[in-house]
Amino acid sequence: MKPIKVGLLGLGTVGSGTFNVLRRNQTEIKGRAGRGIEVAMVCRRNVALAKQIVGDSVAVTADPFEIIRNPEIDIVVETIGGCDLARTLVLEAIAQGKHVVTANKALLAVHGTEIFAAARDKGVMVAFEAAVAGGIPIIKALREGLTANRIEWIAGIINGTTNFILSEMRSKGLDFGTVLKEAQRLGYAEADPTFDVEGVDAAHKLTIMSAIAFGVPVQFDKAHVEGISQLQAADIKYAEQLGYRIKLLGLTRRRDNGIELRVHPTLVPISRLIANVEGAMNAVVVQGDAVGTTLYYGKGAGAEPTASAVIADLVDITRLHTADPDHRVPHLAFQPDAMSDTAILPMTEVLTSYYLRLRVADEAGVLSSITTILAEGDISIDAVLQRESAEGERQTDLIILTHQTQEGGMNKALARMQGLPTVLAPIVRLRKEELA
Ligand code: HSE
């Protein structure tokens, strides 16, 4: 049988990785897919450089529309990133009847509903394993492997840059700014690190996983997004003393009244496997009612780990492209008429527990005035740690861990505590998840 023909939009890290792995493992890939998968055309602005990577046997263009309108091409792989041009190209590829593989989480988290609808209308597949957690086959696991389950929650370390920074801050006791500079020097962080360090990249990935897990549309605009740039080394140290690690978690959970969708720094017990995921690695925990807890671990970025996911999608499409579209795996796991409109909960309705650090005057009655406010807010205390004051010092750090409570109530209690004259600095509030 003739090979299926692929056009690569973008020949950067992911595009080149895909080209190289496809060529290196072509015999095995063909054996699995049932026919060869051949890159027929690539697009990169710097055509000369592209030619150096792919050689003479592959057509090279600087115009992405040449790939999209090429009748020989069956599958378009989009690795250019960004939203505007990528959206135009993907929608045009679909309109031309081509299947699409994309690694673009921002595109799907924001425009997924439109893109999946267009693909359904045209009877083509849009595959996106590489968009979430790079080489970890988490989309496959959620959409197919765990299909028997009612998913209860997902918690993931889904941004390698921030996990690298947090690991360095903890192991070396350094502050965020120092480690960020080092991460940039080593190539772990971009020159403009905003998307990674402010939690946006993780929220894109979480939005996609949440939609698949709960059968709701992708709703990035409803996600709570908080990064690590304000995190202080002192809190990492105190958390450690209390038996916790701080991780940037993406967390989505089914509640009776809606779905939680949030990314923020989170205290996780050191005894949990996910708390021990260090450096730039990714990990995702999925809790299903039948299977219990499952954990997926691996590289969340990089040329060949991401290529591994892109090629898995290429193989799936090669196997399924002649199947009746109604018999393919739905984009978001649920059939379109079985999707749910369950609301994403506002943060004030989220249930979680807390780590609070208060800089307080070291004098009689301070602890009791704080615990009274928490008690009046029906917030139960789990543990208290008071740092010993240095000699002659008249203030100290008071660390409080709470049991689970609603965030709206915690906000009110925090405002009252902050108003106490004995609370001397802005209170640090972090969320804590037992992931039990
Ligand atoms: N910048 C991402 C990370 C990889 O640091 O994990 C691509 O999503």
Bound ligand species = L-homoserine
Overall structural class, as computed from helix and strand content, comes to alpha/beta
Rg estimate, integer Å: 24 Å
The shape, in one word, is elongated
Count structural domains: 3
The counted number of beta strands is 17
Please count the helical segments: 15
Q: How much strand?
A: 15-25%
Question: What is the averaged pLDDT score?
Answer: 96
CATH topology of the largest domain: Rossmann fold
Structural description of this entry:
- With 436 residues, the protein is of the alpha/beta class.
- It is built from 15 helices and 17 strands.
- Strands 7, 8, 9, 10, 11, 12, 13, 14, 15, 16 and 17 form an eleven-stranded mixed β-sheet that branches.
- α8 packs across α9.
- It starts with a strand and ends with a strand.
- It binds L-homoserine.
- L-homoserine binds at residues 159-161, 196, 201, 300-301.
